[in-house]
């Protein structure tokens, strides 16, 4: 298990090494092309050293990589500068957000697909402002109002990935308990249930409810997220949230285990159509 930045460095290095090999270059030849010492190329490829976005661009030019999606993804994995040299939007909140959360947002913003099991609260990408505020207050008791407001702004800004072109493909399995937990009170919950029904109508959102009747299941171990990225399947990452940090799993056996678990839970959950009916029924009775 590694923290997000280490995962990204290792995966970025492995991909750059593969591109160098495909270009028919040794690490020494690659270093000569960009004016570096060979040891710098080796450190980048093994993930022992961080790398700037500008350095990645130099290597991609040296390896004659022209695929714009691949270039954009690898540059984004390198750090916080995009192709225009602008900071990503969440850097305005850098002093407020812990590193693990910033890294999660970075992965989320670059992913093409996100699969998540949620057993306690509605996932952040589908939360209403009032629900997000209640969750933030509960998780960070005693935080000043202005900081709570800023964290809610961050959570709502994250939801832009669902409105992007192309949008993030989101598959959510919600434990039924989430739909009954009155986070923020009954009125806030009612508004949140309505928001879930609206989101479920989006063509790129698949929402399923895991009913109490499903009994015991692998999801009892807790919530998790699986990120997938365009062009490079090996960049898939599993994220496990803890109270004070997030852990990132990258090994093939871990990815397979959580992918198999998600697929199993989809089979136990209600269909998307049954799920919306179930959510609507809970909302009507609220």
TrEMBL record:
<feature type="domain" description="HTH cro/C1-type">
    <location>
        <begin position="16"/>
        <end position="70"/>
    </location>
</feature>
<dbReference type="InterPro" id="IPR043917">
    <property type="entry name" value="DUF5753"/>
</dbReference>
<dbReference type="InterPro" id="IPR001387">
    <property type="entry name" value="Cro/C1-type_HTH"/>
</dbReference>
<dbReference type="Pfam" id="PF19054">
    <property type="entry name" value="DUF5753"/>
</dbReference>
<dbReference type="Pfam" id="PF13560">
    <property type="entry name" value="HTH_31"/>
</dbReference>
<protein>
    <submittedName>
        <fullName>Helix-turn-helix transcriptional regulator</fullName>
    </submittedName>
</protein>
<dbReference type="InterPro" id="IPR010982">
    <property type="entry name" value="Lambda_DNA-bd_dom_sf"/>
</dbReference>
């Amino acid at each position: 298990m590694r923290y997000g930045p280490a995962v990204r460095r290792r995966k970025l290095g492995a991909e750059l090494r593969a591109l160098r090999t495909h270009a028919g270059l040794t690490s020494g030849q690659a270093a000569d092309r960009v004016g570096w010492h060979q040891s710098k190329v080796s450190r980048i490829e093994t993930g022992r050293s961080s790398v700037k976005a500008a350095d990645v661009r130099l290597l991609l030019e040296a390896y004659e990589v022209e695929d714009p999606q691949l270039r954009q993804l690898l540059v984004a994995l390198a750090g916080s500068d995009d192709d225009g040299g602008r900071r990503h939007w969440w850097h305005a909140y850098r002093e407020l957000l812990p590193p693990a959360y910033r890294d999660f947002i970075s992965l989320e913003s670059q992913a093409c697909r996100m699969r998540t099991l949620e057993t306690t609260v509605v996932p952040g990408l589908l939360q209403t402002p009032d629900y997000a505020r209640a969750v933030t207050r509960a998780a960070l008791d005693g935080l000043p109002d202005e900081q709570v407001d800023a964290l809610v702004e961050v959570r709502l800004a994250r939801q832009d990935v669902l409105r992007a072109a192309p949008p993030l493909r989101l598959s959510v399995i919600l434990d039924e308990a989430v739909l009954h937990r009155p986070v923020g009170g009954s009125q806030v919950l009612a508004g949140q249930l309505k928001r879930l029904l609206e989101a479920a109508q989006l063509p790129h959102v698949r929402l399923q409810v895991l009913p109490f009747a499903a009994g015991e299941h692998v999801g009892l171990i807790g919530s998790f997220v699986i990120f997938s990225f365009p062009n490079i399947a090996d960049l898939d990452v599993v994220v496990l949230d803890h109270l004070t940090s997030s852990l990132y799993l990258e090994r093939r056996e871990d990815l397979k285990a959580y992918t198999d678990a998600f697929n199993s839970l989809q089979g136990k959950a209600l269909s998307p159509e049954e799920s919306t009916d179930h959510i609507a029924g809970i909302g009507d009775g609220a």
